[in-house]
Every structure is written in C-alpha cells, then in structure tokens.
Design a protein that fits this description.
The protein is 71% helix and 3% strand. With 313 residues, it is an all-alpha fold. The protein has one domain: ABC transporter involved in vitamin B12 uptake, BtuC (Orthogonal Bundle). Strands 1-2 form a two-stranded antiparallel ribbon. A hairpin with a 2-residue loop joins strand 1 and strand 2. Helix 2 packs antiparallel against helix 3, helix 2 runs parallel beside helix 4 and helix 2 packs across helix 9. The chain is globular.
Length: 313
C-alpha cells in the first residue's frame, strides 16, 4: 500500500513538472509550427541562471527573475534567428534549434564545468508537507506540483478567456486576416515563443533546486517533453497535462516495481512459460522505466495518431 501511495504522489509531481516544460513547447510547436529542439535547453538555463542569482539576491527573487531572463533569451532567438529561417521550412528550424541546443550545453560546461552544481533547496523550505505511513513527504515536491497547476490555470484563462488568447489562436490559423485587422503577427509569434521559453525556465529554476542541476539535464528531459506533446496532441494544453500525468504515473510505478513480465504473467498462469522463454519476459520493469514514455507514444500513435486530445483534422 505504501508503494502505491508514494508512487502515485511522485508520479503526479513528476508529471506536473513535465507539464511545466511541455506547456511551452505545446505553444511553440503546436501553435507556431516551430520544431524547437532547443526547448529543453531553456529548462537547463533556468536552473543555472537561478543557481547563479540565488547566491547574489536570494532564492525567491532568483526563481522569479531567472525565468524572465530565459524568456528574453527566447525572444532574442525568435527575433534574430528563427524569424530569418522560418520561411525556409521546418528543416532549417530543426537544424538551427538543434545547433542552439549544443551551443547552450557547451556554454554551460565552459562556465560551470561538466558536473552538477550545488543548487539546493533553502533550509527554511526543507520540511514535510504531511506524513504518510510514518514517512514524511517533502513540502517542496508539493510546491512544484502546485506551481504547475497554477501555470495551467493561467495559460488556460489567457488563451481561452482573453482577447490576447483570441488573437494568438487566430494568428495561427489565419495570419493574413489578423494582420489585415491591424495586429502585428510577427510580434504575436515572438511573444508566444518568449512565453514558452519563460515556462521552461520557470520549471528549471524551481525543479533544479530539488533534482540535479547538470549540463545533461536538457538531454535527459528533452526527448520526454517531445513525447508528451505528441501524446497529448499538438497545440492542446489539456492534452499536454493529461499526457504528462499519464507518463509521470507510469514511469513512477515502473521505476519502483521490482517485478518482471513473467511475474505478472503468473497471475494468469503463464509465468512458467514466460520464464522458460526468458529474454524480455524476465527483465525487471525498473530497468526499462526510462523506455515507458516511448512505449506510451507508440501505443497512442497506433490507436490515435492525432494524440489523446489533438485535432483530428
């Protein structure tokens, strides 16, 4: 029972962290059509900038200022680089952002070294949020999840209930008409890209103090974030949230499960036969937990190519 409770909580928190990063990519990838391979690098930059600022101005000001700086970096990249290659198609955008990801990673290694930095939670935040089965659950994990939920609520309200959201959604589908109505479409896209970078930077600034802040953090999360966007459906915030929670929960349970497929097969009488075959049937689920997001994506694409909540058209 304890395994189920803690795996569920950890899976939800991890899923909400994935959502904070993937929400920005959902805006950029789904609404602007930009294949941004450098998106996870904004997550990494948010953690490193917050780490540097925390030593100068304190933890709370750092996690507020760092995402803003990352958002400005995103605006500069869209204005000075992506806008120039956007008209040439997705291949040029992909190559540019792929190269930017390497530039960011190598820059971080030159400035901070090729190892993790001591970015950690302040002492006054290291207390339990509650106790389950005699074990304390960290407050900071709950804080990460609550921040992600607040971000979802704000984005949903902004895109669905405000004039800005109407203009953004219209600019994606009918940019010529939006421009004819007097709106600056390039500035709209620049703002969307900046908000997407800000969201990733916020996720890095907050979670970097709890998880490891290292030059590999972008690479470790980058593929999973793209999987979340595809599984949820391009351009769907609700889909990104559902996909993030689904992948977070499945990954959490798989990582803590000390069983193999043959053990599960024993529940229906196939255990001995599966053990005799060996191979993948005898591999512990915990050893393949990192492959769970990819398996989820394959299943979803086979059953629903548009994603869980994507537009079928």
């Amino acid at each position: 029972m304890d395994f189920v409770l803690f795996s569920t909580l950890n899976g939800i928190i991890y899923g909400l962290l994935l959502f904070m990063v993937s929400a920005g990519l959902t805006l950029i990838f789904g609404m602007m059509g930009i294949v941004n391979f450098a998106h996870a690098s904004f997550y990494m930059l948010g953690a490193y900038i917050a780490y540097s600022l925390a030593k100068l101005i304190g933890f709370w000001p750092a996690i507020l200022l760092a995402p803003l700086l990352v958002g400005l970096i995103g605006v500069a990249i869209e204005r000075g680089m992506l806008r120039r290659v956007h008209k040439h198609g997705h291949a040029h955008e992909l190559l540019l952002t792929f190269g930017l990801a390497y530039v960011f990673e190598e820059t971080v290694k030159m400035l901070y070294g090729n190892y993790a930095v001591p970015y950690s939670i302040p002492a006054d935040l290291r207390f339990p949020a509650f106790t389950l089965s005699g074990a304390d659950y960290p407050f900071y994990r709950v804080f990460i999840g609550l921040t992600a939920l607040v971000m979802f609520a704000l984005l949903f309200w902004l895109l669905r209930r405000t004039r800005v959201g109407i203009i953004v959604r219209a600019a994606v589908r009918r940019p010529e008409m939006v421009g004819a109505l007097g709106h600056d479409v390039p500035k709209v896209f620049m703002g969307v890209f900046g908000i997407g970078a800000w969201l990733a930077g916020l996720a890095g600034a907050i979670s970097g103090a709890f998880f490891t802040t290292s030059p590999n953090m972008a690479l470790e999360l980058g593929i999973i974030v793209f999987v979340v966007v595809v599984v949820g459906g391009l351009g769907s915030l609700e889909g990104a949230l559902v996909a993030s929670l689904l992948i977070g929960l499945l990954t959490s349970f798989a990582a803590g499960a000390d069983v193999a497929l043959a053990d599960l097969g024993g529940l229906v009488g196939l255990g001995p036969a599966m053990k005799a075959i060996g191979g993948i049937f005898t591999v512990k689920l915990a050893t393949i937990a990192a492959s769970v997001p990819i398996l989820v994506m394959l299943v979803v694409l086979l059953l629903r190519p548009s994603g869980l909540m994507g537009d079928k058209t």
